[in-house]
Amino acid sequence: MLSPTHWLKKVGLSPGLVPFFKCVCVYFAAGVGAAPSAVAVAAKCAPVLSLLLLLLWHRPRVRYGQYVCAGLALSALGDALLVFEQGLAPGIAAFAAAHIAYIAAFGWGSPRFGMLGLALYVATTAFVWQLPHWLGALVPAYAALLATTAWRGVARGGRAAVGAVLFLLSDAVLALQLFSHHPPLPYHQVLVMASYYLGQLGIALSVFENDCKQQ
């Protein structure tokens, strides 16, 4: 039987990602729908923390990698907070800070895909306009940051683009379930978390892509 390390090498991924995929499997086996607890927090945060530890092991020395590490750390904090009902507002704030870190990493150097950015802002505004007023300014501000992350990720290209778009997809599905009157999508929680973890994976792997460009 071929090992997970062998398969990762075969598809061009680092064997250091084995802990990430194992943590994702554990989460989907035991963490989805679990009652709020320390175990639920650990299961939910473990995949993102494994990506953070992988990057820290490689000691990113350029700002791009350091900003992505900050984004991963803040995302893990947001994951932990959102396990609990009272953690909604601080969890959104933590993810907002994560997006600021990702935007700082992706940069503003390329003016490409300006129309995509405009379309994302228009779509975000149209969606936020329908949200309950009790949410205040936090969710609209977060939505603007999410749209900016997707735009700048696509403008950067490569794995950053894939990761940013998957992150946007995850949050879009989550927002539809939380704040709209649409009937729940089948397996919506699996779709949200699968696209979220793959999005974080893409953004994390873009650090190695960036390091190759720097050489």
Describe this entry's structure for a reader:
- This protein has 215 residues and is mostly helical.
- It has one domain (4-214).
- Helices cover 76% and strands 0% of the residues.
- The protein contains nine helices and no strands.
- The protein has helices at 4-10, 18-31, 38-57, 63-82, 88-106, 114-128, 138-156, 158-179, 188-214.
- The model has no long low-confidence stretch (mean pLDDT 84).
Quick tags:
215 residues, mainly alpha, globular, 0% strand
Short description:
The chain is mainly alpha-helical.
Return the structural class. Answer: mainly alpha
Silhouette: globular
Helix content: over 70%
Strands, total number: 0
Q: What would the average pLDDT be, to the nearest integer?
A: 84
What is the rounded distance between the termini?
A: 37 Å
Major sheet size, sense and barrel closure: none
Number of helices: 9
Using the CA coordinates, give the radius of gyration. 17 Å
Share in β-strands: under 5%
SSE pattern, N- to C-terminal: HHHHHHHHH
Unreliable spans are: none
What's the number of structural domains? 1
